[in-house]
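Input for the complex:
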Amino acid sequence: MEKFEKVISTGIPMPIEHVDTDQIIPARFLKATTREGFGDNLFRDWRYDKADQPIQDFVLNNPTYDGSILVAGENFGCGSSREHAAWAIYDFGIRVVVSSFFADIFKGNSLNNGLLPVQLATEEMDEIFKAIEKNPSVQFEVDLPSQTFKILGTDQSFHFEIDNYKKMCMLNGYDDLDFLLSLENEIEKFEKEQVIY
Amino acid sequence: MGKTLVDKIWEAHKVHEVEGAEVIYIDQQFLHEVTSPQAFDGLRKRDRQVFRINKNLATADHNVPTWNQHLPIQEPLSRKQVKKLTDNCEEFGVQLYGLGHQYQGIVHVIGPELGYTKPGMTIVCGDSHTSTHGAFGAIAFGIGTSQVEQVLASQCLVLKKPKNMRITIDGELQNGVLSKDIILYIISKLDTGGATGHFVEYAGSAIKNLSMEARMTVCNMSIEMGARGGLIAPDETTIDYVKSKWSGEQSDLAAAEKFWSTLYTDEDAKFDTEYHFDAADIEPMLTYGTNPGMGMKVSDSIPATADAKPLAYMGLNNGESLLGKEIQHVFIGSCTNGRIEDLRLIADFVKGKRKSDHVEVMIIPGSKQVEKQAKEEGLDAVFAEAGFQLREPGCSACLGMNEDKIPAGEYCVSTSNRNFEGRQGPGARTILASPLMAAAAAINGKIVDVRSEL
Ligand code: SF4
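Predicted:
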């Protein structure tokens, strides 16, 4: 996993609620057996029509918007547990998804792949959407050590929460498995004491 | 202060604590072909073995065809993915009930059916509907592929303890109202994100009166309101079921039963959130939109406030009733309603009736065992007479990864759990309902209130 410290970028606005992982990456693209290449099919059925032509008014096809920060609607990533959704977003070049609310499994999957989910208050999200609407090339700064999301060129700066453990993993590029493997003795001890049926 | 059932099971599986999270031991992992290949690859890259082989079980379900399973899979990518699972299981020594095996089936159907799922366990699978197993009083939840790899390598996960929610449903269900209606009703009340961050315990007399299979249907859809999982405290119904599947030593059974009897929420336990509903208020339910929270009673009309985008996708209007709506497909199956009890109920209802000419009906049994039992009980003949196709087991049109897809723009009344855009095929329009409502729609060629047909 790549280390994450700070991202400065423009944002891609997608103010749609309850975006489920079937939209992020439809099931028919889950047949690959590696982690790479899913970005091409990110939001496939919103991005391309039946003849595989780009749908012009979808935000990812709109040249006005670009960047590595996806500014999303409430309850982003609900539905299927497919980690392919986080892989597809990352593979497309996104490093941060910001929303007022994330579905649990998606949030966990993102953190395990170096994709930072930033949860902000609804009013703060409104400010971000407004800033992009006013000026699509407005830059945002996402700083993990200080846990802040800034709208550059303004004095607006929002604090976000992240578990200390997860923050440490993201900053160092560690995943949970590195940590779990270091606990082998403790796990074996637990097994000896546990009675299960 | 007392403890909830989730607290008790959680604490009994805690291996280690870190700041803001806990390391939890996993008693059983289920694997399938779609979310496991990258996990096995990860093991290979790290040069690791599977840590506890006998706590992992695999099956092929998401991609498999539902015709001619004895022949090689036609679709090359599906064939490759299923082959990959077979190779991985062979290389790492994991037990696989693959295509052609008498125990193959949808992962959440075979776990309980074969006696792997038991009260008090922690159970995971790279699939969000793992919550199904919670019906036995287990902590069961879906995980991502990185976590599948973690469990393969260490039998543990780093987790944040979920919050506790209890949903109590007391009273008697109306005739023709099934457990599928209970859960669709709850989700319509809580919305798709209403239980995010929570583990839900379902309680109350209406839940207690359900069979194990009906309980699985309820727990199955917990994720559709955002919950990490759902569970029901084990009682006599649970213990009878688990005993009937018991494969261990008889001498261990008494001790096991004693342990299971400790699995309940203490009376003075406190939940972060509680809801109460009256069973009598529940009617057969239907969804009208593109997430499972967009549901209503069959006698209701689509809310005036419902969003335009999902309604446009569904070709429906605000204020419209779904009664009389013509449909083209009926899909009966999935880990929500693909069990023998569902098939029996449908056979009983359609006996002597015939499907409407313009409707295609597929029944996909949840497992080889369900298929076999249906045939032994003669349900196949009833379905054949009614014009319903009984096929071979798999996920099928629940997510349309194999060739079973609903054509764009056509309506499908489905007993599965998700009506997302494109879930059953690009452009497909899904209406979620109970098996009885689905069967009644198949016979009538349109949506009817099954209560008037009983
Ligand atoms: S039947 Fe549907 S919901 Fe169940 S495991 Fe298969 S794809 Fe998932």
